[in-house]
Amino acid sequence: VRTVELAAYEIDRTEVTxxxxxxxxxxxxxxxxxxxxxxxWAKRTARGDHPINCVSWDDATAFCGWAGKRLPSESEWxxxxxxxxxxxxxxxxxxxxxxxxxxxxxSDLLSGSRHGxxxxxxxxxxxxxxxxxDMAGNVLEWTSAFYSDSYTADPSTTHRVNRGGSWITxxxxxxxxxxxxxxxxxxxxxxxxxxCVR
Length: 198
Known about the structure:
The chain contains 3 helices and 4 strands; from the N terminus they run αααββββ. The protein has helices at 18-26, 57-66, 74-82, and strands at 140-146, 160-163, 180-183, 192-193. A 4-stranded mixed beta sheet has the order 3-2-1-4. The chain starts with 17 loop residues before the first helix and ends in a 5-residue tail after the last strand. The model has no long low-confidence stretch (mean pLDDT 94).
């Protein structure tokens, strides 16, 4: 546990959607996302209101810049998810049930039955104290931070931090707002998307 002081900022209420990302691609400012079977870009006509996934860290950074924003720092992301009371999950201390798009016991589907993301905002009961939705489940989210066990800025590392759990998450602990994941920035994973701040 550590204390961090943050300047005022705004964070997107939802994860960036396929429809919004497609507008950036059409404008020539973003590259097309991955098209594997679990990638929403491959089904963009039917999944316009789902989070964009299968995007690299550079793809996410390009979109946020095009939108006049940036990726959140790790601390900005966590504060938006936990609030000033530093709750375990965005909705509080209770273990997840139907508050998130996830695949574990108590989700809105039978465990092991989820086969992709959910429309953004479809689990509004899981919103954070500031009203941000899907900060647990749906897709992990890229941050601007380099991964370091000590939280110190280390640009020599090959990984970036992503936060928030995903639709394929099965264990409740993997949806905790304080949990950190790391991934190489060039990877386009079907569990990862993003939201922006300014």
